Amino acid sequence: xxxxxxxxxxxxxxxxxxxxxxxxxxxxxxxxxxxxxxxxxxxxxxxxxxxxxxxxxxxxxxxxxxxxxxxxxxxxxxxxxxxxxxxxxxxxxxxxxxxxxxxxxxxxxxxxxxxxxxxxxxxxxxxxxxxxxxxxxxxxxxxxxxxxxxxxxxxxxxxxxxxxxxxxxxxxxxxxxxxxxxxxxxxxxxxxxxxxxxxxxxxxxxxxxxxxxxxxxxxxxxxxxxxxxxxxxxxxxxxxxxxxxxxxxxxxxxxxxxxxxxxxxxxxxxxxxxxxxxxxxxxxxxxxxxxxxxxxxxxxxxxxxxxxxxxxxxxxxxxxxxxxxxxxxxxxxxxxxxxxxxxxxxxxxxxxxxxxxxxxxxxxxxxxxxxxxxxxxxxxxxxxxxxxxxxxxxxxxxxxxxxxx
Amino acid sequence: xxxxxxxxxxxxxxxxxxxxxxxxxxxxxxxxxxxxxxxxxxxxxxxxxxxxxxxxxxxxxxxxxxxxxxxxxxxxxxxxxxxxxxxxxxxxxxxxxxxxxxxxxxxxxxxxxxxxxxxxxxxxxxxxxxxxxxxxxxxxxxxxxxxxxxxxxxxxxxxxxxxxxxxxxxxxxxxxxxxxxxxxxxxxxxxxxxxxxxxxxxxxxxxxxxxxxxxxxxxxxxxxxxxxxxxxxxxxxxxxxxxxxxxxxxxxxxxxxxxxxxxxxxxxxxxxxxxxxxxxxxxxxxxxxxxxxxxxxxxxxxxxxxxxxxxxxxxxxxxxxxxxxxxxxxxxxxxxxxxxxxxxxxxxxxxxxxxxxxxxxxxxxxxxxxxxxxxxxxxxxxxxxxxxxxxxxxxxxxxxxxxxx
Lengths: 405, 405
Known about the structure:
2 copies of one chain form a homodimer.
Chain A: E1 3-8, H1 16-31, E2 35-40, H2 46-57, H3 63-70, H4 72-87, E3 92-95, E4 102-104, E5 113-116, H5 119-126, E6 130-134, E7 137-140, E8 145-147, H6 152-164, E9 168-173, E10 194-196, H7 197-205, H8 213-222, E11 226-230, E12 238-241, E13 254-258, E14 261-270, H9 275-285, E15 293-295, E16 302-310, H10 314-328, E17 333-336, E18 339-345, H11 355-365, E19 372-376, E20 379-385, H12 389-399
């Protein structure tokens, strides 16, 4: 008998029919002999609707109250799920984040889990019941209701799987798994049946939207096998697991892309120590999430610094950079929103040094210019023109023979 | 500096504009120098919508999960209220029933308050903040979320006022107070500026819908002055207070009516001890809320028993009565849904024994037949034909000179 955590996202529980379909699946898992802990998100567009309501009421939205507001969503979906399970003769019992013992810090709207007590979940399991837990929420050390921020329900599921020693954490979503590229861009993209945590981390960081980076980090740190799969087709999806040293890794596993960032360049920065540090500290203080950073070799005592930031942060980033440029006697600050990132991810890259060269050549053959480059041990990322990114993904997918098995 | 509990019902917080209007009123109360504890219901039709959703999902609705579902409603309204107050520079903080320390028994969907701890509310008040508390909900001794049933938010407000030693509990609603009769039936009905708890209890029990019986009982038992008033006009409404022995009471304070009940008659009941007890015990076991009971004087060794029940319980009540009638050899069981109750309420009746006679005479003068009569020390109730009840109310309002001051 295995213990499985099954997490269902907003589209998976989007209406009454979906909730009944999910309850049916949970009941089947139970009949198969496994123990189940269920984690649910708020139904469909609930969170967006609550945020719109908040905007209608007030321009001032204290984070504590925003958390109180948003956590009403999972309460609805988990109570309805328990009713649907009762209809299937499955004895289920719902738990808020607080009741499930998910203790967080006090950083409202982006709280971090500090501890998972889970006593009531263990008791429910021992009583033969199915605990249905609210995703995305916890209770702070100050006894206030908190939310875990983006990807929070995935994090709840992984944290519970770790705390309860579950055999697997199944993340049910509206796609059938993780693909070798975005299937909308590359119709020949294939579903990956198995990935290492490291590959999944780089895929998530470079544009793959299936799993939030944070939940993958949590799973890796706590050795929780993840299974990303569809709640619409119920077919087996993608396993994300520890890398097995005996396995030979594919050189390139996936081609990812991301059009959500813009490039900002500061030209003519005097080549003195500490100036880059001042720039990025100033950006961090404005909570700007800087992704890639490239600094050219110094020419005539000055250098250019380019970096990418989320498009929503362009205005404030430019302001910060212009202030600093004026202070230190640098040149222009230029923002370019017509860029995109394309990345190759694969654990086998570690032992195959030629991947970057093949990537650059492939792009050159397509006549695609590279703006910026950054690499990690198992990833290469190029910034290209936004209007060329789909062509780049298709060419790379072909060049690395990802179309075939 | 007074401490006031202000409770706002569903229509008072029905949309973003209403929430802002209420926040403005709370801010004014604060500027006036008073301390405020706010209690809110779920917005408008939220509860009905959640119940419809539950019906769509499952025919089986475990009460614990129904409570979890419904308590999401107040979470939304209290968080929005705190945001609207923040917008008015009022430092407010929301508390669930559990966080406010409202401890109940484990009877889901109709829990009774056992204790109000209120430590966090006292702390918030000491910190100069306005606590905004979810009405209608608590946490059980088993640490589960419970709801207090019909009129629950009023009960929350009164319980908090009692626990915190508030100077008054203001119940804001969509009418301007308690009237001498339903103004839709009697356009000359006037708003009562002051009532005793006993009068309010009899008004609530005999058809006045402004306050739930239970919250009035709680207020009387804990000596909490109530002020029923409108959140649309903000004018002073009706005070419900301890009876003052020095005051001369009006003989009749209000004429109430109620069309929500049906009359059931069991004929030819053998005149043996214990048969009536068996009937009403059987009804109680089916959770039927029997209101009036009249048993005629025995004729020829048998008697007729008539009683009124909510119209929704007619079918089950008739079934119970027919089973018993067959068992004990009684006659027919007849249900009559075309009846209505009309009542006179007034603390002065205690010292004015002629009220009933005047009531019966007034109805007789109008050609209105009386089906059943029941009296308490400060109330007389007659059951009449449903189609005559408005005429009865108007005639009585006139006869007891309630139109004039």
